[in-house]
Specification:
single chain, 3 domains, 3-stranded antiparallel beta sheet, 10 helices, alpha/beta, D-Maltodextrin-Binding Protein, domain 2, Arc Repressor Mutant, subunit A, elongated
Length: about 290
């Protein structure tokens, strides 16, 4: 790319959504912003934005550029901080992504850091999909299952996610509890939205009950907890969701085959960034206090 200025301009337009807003952030005239966008689109041979009365919306090509530009700007900022000797200053955006159901562990660490460093802006995304760290979609990813193998990422063991099978008192009063595995078929269950879920406890259940026994499906951990609490069915809850399990009955205690290892994943280029290191330290300390390490 011949001009980083043009890429940076497009990044700010995509982030803010207006030419005037991008011009203000960059400290240039709005005509300069338009000229940069036009030149970049001509060079790439693709429309980066849809123009409309309210501003600019990134096209699919624009979204791809935004990912690259975000990661590049982050790396430049880290480099500038190292050169100027200001790496102790904690500010800017910290983007953390995890599988659903980890909020009780992740959120306190983020809130605590933000209290200590007011210049830190946090974005926490709970989603089962894999965010691409190399494109700056996230700075820290908490992933489940086998150890991630991407050679460009730094992978650290985090903790073991253990679960148990729970029921509400109302469900127990109406249906009782399963006596053993052979008794599971007569019960109702909360399950994943994706029947092909790779979570070991969901696979364990799918091997033992017919599909019609999973009567309530969701991809939201909080919705699953609400459904269990409301007496809709039996369901699995992680040990770290202590608040969600309050007042519920353990239908089956946790088993080793239901456990899932969790990993802290960062991109090698940003792993040593102070805000990332502070978050990693804080969330690992919380995991120890919760007995999750």
């Amino acid at each position: 790319m011949e001009s980083w200025d043009e890429v940076r301009t497009a990044y700010q337009v995509a982030r803010i959504g207006t030419v005037s807003g991008a011009a203000e952030v960059l400290g240039v005239h709005h005509a300069t912003v338009i000229r940069h966008i036009d030149a970049l689109e001509a060079r790439l041979g693709a429309k980066l934005f849809q123009r409309h009365p309210r501003g600019y919306t990134a096209t699919e090509a624009g979204q791809e550029l935004l990912k690259v530009a975000r990661a590049t700007e982050d790396q430049f900022a880290h480099l500038a901080a190292r050169i100027s000797g200001t790496t102790t200053e904690i500010s800017g955006e910290l983007v953390v992504t995890s599988i659903p159901g980890l909020s009780e562990l992740v959120t306190p660490a983020l809130v605590r850091l933000q209290g200590e460093y007011p210049g830190l802006r946090v974005r926490y995304i709970s989603d089962p999909r894999l965010f691409r760290l190399e494109y700056g979609e996230a700075h820290v990813a908490i992933r489940a299952g086998g150890r991630p193998q991407d050679p460009d990422n730094v992978v650290q063991p985090f903790c073991i996610r253990s679960v148990a099978l729970y029921a509400s008192p109302d469900y127990v009063a109406a249906h009782g509890l399963p006596q053993d595995e052979t008794d599971l078929g007569r019960h109702r269950f909360v399950g994943p939205a994706d029947p092909e879920s790779r979570a070991p406890f969901h696979r364990w259940l799918a091997e033992r009950v017919p599909d019609e026994a999973i009567t309530f499906r969701t991809n939201e951990a909080n919705v699953a907890a609400d459904a269990i609490r409301a007496g809709a069915a039996l369901g699995f809850l992680p040990a770290m969701q202590k608040r969600a399990a309050e007042g519920l009955v353990v239908a089956m205690p946790g088993r080793p085959e239901w456990e899932t290892p969790l990993w802290l994943v960062t991109h090698v280029d940003l792993h040593r960034t102070p805000r990332i290191q502070l978050f990693l330290k804080a969330v690992k300390e919380d995991a120890k206090r919760c007995g999750m390490d």
